[in-house]
């Protein structure tokens, strides 16, 4: 009788104890305090293909400089507990600054999973010219229509 009581208690506790053993790579995104992402590394992956940890997706300095390392810090959440807000920084030459940054991670079991795969986060960022950068590289625009320079759309016209 005593053995079956202990066995029953063990079986009840087993799912909680084994959760970390079954999924050691599973982490609640809101528990991640900092991320350090590097130019030449790819994310870990499980459900989707690995992607570069750093990806410049725009800005008027895109293609002029490659950021080596970006560090992002969890600043808490806004409208719900799991909508984590990140502040990202990088050491850059005086001609450049980071524009907007988006931290993107692979959900562990699905796209909407609050848990993510450890090591799966990356940053998409925009690289912007500072005033010193505009002096060195000239004024550039990444807008679709640049009214100041009177340039037309930067895509083919469709009729």
List the helices and strands and how they pair.
Layout: H1 2-22, E1 26-28, E2 34-38, E3 54-58, E4 69-77, E5 84-89, E6 96-104, E7 115-117, E8 122-129, H2 131-137
Parallel strand pairs: 3-8
Antiparallel strand pairs: 1-7, 2-4, 4-5, 6-8
Span of the ends, CA to CA: 82 Å
Largest sheet: 3 strands, antiparallel
Q: What is the H/E string?
A: HEEEEEEEEH
Question: DSSP strand (E) fraction?
Answer: 25-35%
Biggest sheet strand line-up: 2-4-5
* Helix count from the secondary structure assignment: 2
Alpha-carbon Rg, integer: 23 Å
Helix share, percent: 10-25%
Kindly summarize this structure in a few lines.
By secondary structure, this protein is α+β, with helices and mostly antiparallel strands.
Q: How would you sum up this structure, described in words?
A:
The longest helix has 21 residues, at 2-22. It contains two helices and eight strands, in the order αββββββββα. It is α+β, with helices and mostly antiparallel strands and 159 residues long. Helix content is 18%, strand content 30%. The model is unreliable at 1-21 and 144-159 (pLDDT under 50). The protein is elongated and about 55 Å long. It has a three-stranded antiparallel beta sheet, with no helix packed on it. Strand 4 (69-77) and strand 5 (84-89) form a beta hairpin. The protein has helices at residues 2-22, 131-137, and strands at residues 26-28, 34-38, 54-58, 69-77, 84-89, 96-104, 115-117, 122-129.
């Amino acid at each position: 009788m005593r053995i079956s009581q202990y066995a029953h208690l063990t079986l009840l506790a087993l799912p909680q104890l084994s959760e970390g053993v079954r999924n050691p790579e599973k982490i609640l995104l809101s528990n991640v305090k900092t991320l350090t992402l590097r130019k030449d590394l790819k994310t870990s992956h499980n459900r989707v293909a690995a992607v570069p940890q750093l990806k410049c997706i725009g800005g008027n300095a895109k293609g002029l400089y490659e950021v080596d390392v970006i560090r992002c810090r969890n600043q808490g959440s806004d409208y719900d507990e799991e909508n984590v807000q990140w502040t990202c920084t990088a050491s850059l030459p005086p001609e450049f600054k980071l524009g907007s940054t988006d931290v993107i991670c692979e959900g562990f079991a699905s796209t909407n999973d609050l848990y993510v795969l450890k090591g799966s986060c990356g940053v998409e960022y925009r690289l912007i010219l500072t005033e010193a950068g505009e002096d060195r590289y000239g004024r550039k625009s990444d807008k679709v229509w640049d009214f100041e320079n009177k340039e037309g759309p930067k895509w083919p016209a469709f009729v």
